[in-house]
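Input record (one chain):
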Amino acid sequence: MIRSLTRLGRPPWYLLDPRQLETWLETFTETGLSAEEAKKRRLAFGSNRIAERPFPSPVWLFFRQFMDFMVLILIAAAAFSAMIGDLKDSVSILIIIVLNAVLGFVQEFRAAHAVASLKTLSQRVTSIRRDGKLQAILAENLVPGDVVFLEAGTIVPADMRIIQSIRLQIDESILTGESLSARKTSDRIEGRNLTPGDQSNMAFNGTVVSAGRGFGIVVAIGKETELGTISESVTEATVHLSPLQHRLNRFGLWLTFIVLGICGLVLWIGVVQGKPIELMMMTAISLAVAAIPEALPAMATAALSLGAGHMARRNALVKRLHAIEALGSVTYICSDKTGTLTQNKMRAEQFMMGDQLLISPDWSMHSDFLRALTLNNDAVFGASGRVTGDGTEIALLEATRLEKDQVDALRKQFLRSDEIPFDSERMRMTTLHREGESYIAITKGAAEVLLPRCSHLGDQPLTPEARERMELIATKMAAEGMRVICFAQKAFDLKPESNDQIESSLSLLGMVGLMDPPRPESPIAVARCLAAGITPVMITGDHPGTAKAIAVKLGIASGNDLVMTGAELES
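The corresponding structure, as predicted from the sequence alone:
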């Protein structure tokens, strides 16, 4: 059997190269596992399922409604009323208690049933290599060591180490909150304690392949996956009382002490005055029953139930009634930017070409820049005629205003022969294209990374003054809320031999300022939060200048507010 797969018993998978991975998992990338070995591992590791809380018993849900301090006081009051012969009050109190329990039970049962229904999705099928052949199996039958085929539209069925990547991009927003797809590589990467978002050679359970294709070796299934770890921590989380429940319980406790104190005082005064103790006992108990506000829990439950109904009409599912009241106690809302506060649709707003800042360039005068936008780009035209792919690259291709046949012709003329993929450390991507016997390299990336690698502006040397002007323009565009991307190129008579040779002494073509516009409803929602005393906070991976510009537009920040980076927050 393969070595221990516990997190403490092996190194991070992203540190291993494919051959080391094969040794650890006792598998083969070319053939995958045999059916017999897969069967043994299924028995050893179990199903590829994430454990979930069982559907609550209706009986338990109903009786849980009585486990409230105020309700227990009312039950005691009903019992005392029956003891003193006041059956009318006793029955009235019991009816209110049962009504309160029924209201709470109906709401929680419907919510729990709806949540369970959402999880009963059709079983996923995934393609794997078994016994040297590509075959389809249920995702729940995957085992560590299986070699899985990934393609656009596939939901990643388990955690896996990428061993082959052909322009593979994966939407990891379910784990990272970042809506832009992450580019994946098969190369090992260095670093300790990297977050899932930084593990560019890993694919995680529940994420979605947005472009490209590739193969990965399963390294974790079920509860051992990143998604399984999160699910388990949520399942084991302690359920705390809401602020209203705390206040009602505290109120009930104090009310009990006060009522018992007053009843004891009335009993003592009556006995001191010489009245029969039996009469005074009945009087004290009657007073206690009368003082208990038996309708309070029912009224609170009814109010919360009305709130749940109101939210249901707005397509918000409420599992526990007291969550409604807890929402009313919110003082801060932390929100992602991309796709939440913004439209998640990038578009080109400004172009910097030479010393000109343009809104809509004449591409006939900037054919090299047009070519760069088209060739260093993985976005494609779909069957419907719409451009599909990464949001940034869609915006860049749309900015060229070229038709599908024009894009295809240009890419056919300059065939891509190689590429140096983008990663979070390099902050740039280069593609190498062949035309006849010569080659041209096109590089795009962040301005602060690419400008130092440029020696020319077009055909002219890039002077220190021109470089400083470009840096100021890039900073200004970022301050206006734009994401700035630089493009440069370099020509070769023969195919270059090293990456350093390709990405040095580049000729700067220009810069593009991309903007993800705010949703029209976002400023209204922010204003409502502020009016309700709630402070909205925007958290994003964008450049601080871009983040602040968007925050000011939305009303989250003012011009004088400071932006805190992740490094500053951690220190």
